[in-house]
Specification:
The protein is mostly beta strands and 349 residues long. The protein has helices at residues 11-16, 86-101, 169-183, 264-271; strands at 26-35, 38-44, 47-52, 67-76, 82-85, 107-116, 119-124, 127-131, 151-160, 163-167, 192-201, 204-209, 212-217, 238-247, 252-256, 277-286, 289-294, 299-307, 324-333, 338-343. The protein has four domains: 19-91, Beta Barrel (OB fold (Dihydrolipoamide Acetyltransferase, E2P)), CATH 2.40.50; 102-172, Beta Barrel (OB fold (Dihydrolipoamide Acetyltransferase, E2P)), CATH 2.40.50; 187-260, Beta Barrel (OB fold (Dihydrolipoamide Acetyltransferase, E2P)), CATH 2.40.50; 272-343, OB fold (Dihydrolipoamide Acetyltransferase, E2P) (Beta Barrel), CATH 2.40.50.140.
């Protein structure tokens, strides 16, 4: 007869065989039960967690047996089960893949979670991102607090043990080199550029063009009279502008918006024909002639010498203020925006 040794269950020993799960840990498991408000998710052995229904993009498609990874939240639901997040785990895993691909000298973006000893700190998944204070900006007067809770772009300068040391200064220098070698040499008057409105002032606005702060004066926004730039522009608006002046040495660029369109006055001048007769109204009398306004609101000069058969007379002896007369276009200077007329008191349309 075989000797049979009685064995007792050692619960303490069995408990030690289970994994010690910690808050913020990412673990793989599977759905073992679907409820109206979420899913019970088994992490292995006797450990279950609960995933709220909000964590699923389409809860109706969830099935018992579905396997994926979750992040343990560190808190429990009303039934005492650990809460787990499917979305956060997916976000961390995606961020991990992004961080793993980053090479020294490459650009990437991250969210600044906090500032410690003037260093910018954040994470990409499980990777710690640090921007030391001496790598934050060429501008020594920068307010570090403005970068807190912001998504910023940096260049990786050191990578080790899931820690990435990054630099904003390196990125600024890289952009400056591109500007000096490519952007500034490409400028010319009347060039079309795409700009984003960054700041609006009473007399104009600052516009970002490829990282360069440019300025558009209120007088160059519209051919119509504008009381405030906000009548035409909005913060964040992306528009096409024209370069109307620039200074490479001092890094200044002046933009125009109205220059994208033909001046209405020029268009009206082009529609006039030399030698044709038009109706006009005398709006001003001068010692040497009269200013006449046409029906299209253009104004020109009727010189006394261009009035037929009135030798020796003064202009006020021929026409009066507000008189409506028929005049002929003698000359048009589109560039100077000037019109000269001829008048025959006996001529009518």
């Amino acid at each position: 007869m075989n000797n049979i040794k009685d064995e007792k269950f050692d619960l303490e020993a069995i408990d030690k065989t289970f994994v010690n799960y910690k808050s913020k840990q990412i673990l793989k498991g599977k759905i073992v039960l679907l409820k109206t408000d979420g899913a019970v998710f088994n992490l292995g052995g006797k450990i279950d967690a609960f995933i709220p229904i909000e964590e699923f993009s389409n809860f109706q498609n969830a099935k018992v047996g579905d396997e994926f990874e979750v992040l343990l939240e560190g808190s429990k639901n009303d039934d005492g089960m650990m809460l787990a997040s499917k979305n956060k785990a997916e976000g961390i895993l995606i961020a991990n893949k992004k961080a793993e691909k980053i090479k020294i000298g490459e650009k990437f973006t991250f969210f600044v979670d906090k500032i410690y000893n003037n260093n910018l700190l954040g994470r990409l998944g499980v990777y710690e991102i640090i921007v030391p204070n001496n790598e934050i900006s060429i501008n020594q007067n920068i307010h570090y607090g403005k970068l807190l809770k912001k998504q910023i772009e940096v260049i990786a300068i050191e990578i080790s043990n899931k820690r990435i040391i990054a630099s904003i200064i390196a990125l600024e220098k890289q952009k400056q080199e591109i500007l000096n070698n490519t952007f500034w040499p490409s400028l010319f008057i009347n060039k079309k550029v795409i700009g984003t409105v960054k700041k609006i002032l009473p007399y104009g606005a600052f516009v970002d063009v490829e990282g360069v702060d440019c300025f558009v004066h209120i007088s160059n926004l519209s051919y119509d009279r504008v009381q405030s730039p906000e009548e035409v522009l909005k913060i964040g608006q992306v528009l096409e502008f024209r370069i109307i002046n620039f200074d490479k040495d001092n890094k200044k660029i002046e933009l125009g918006l109205k220059q994208n369109f033909e001046n209405p006055i020029i268009k009206k001048l082009k529609n006039l024909q030399v030698g044709e007769y038009y109706k006009g109204k005398v709006v001003k009398l001068l010692p040497f002639g009269a200013i006449v306004r046409l029906e299209n609101n253009l104004e020109g000069l009727l010189h006394i010498s261009d009035v037929a058969n009135v030798s020796g007379k003064r202009i006020y002896e021929i026409v009066k203020l507000d008189d409506e007369i028929t005049i002929m276009v003698k000359n048009i200077d589109v560039e100077a925006r000037k019109i000269s007329f001829m008048f025959n008191p006996q001529k009518s349309i």
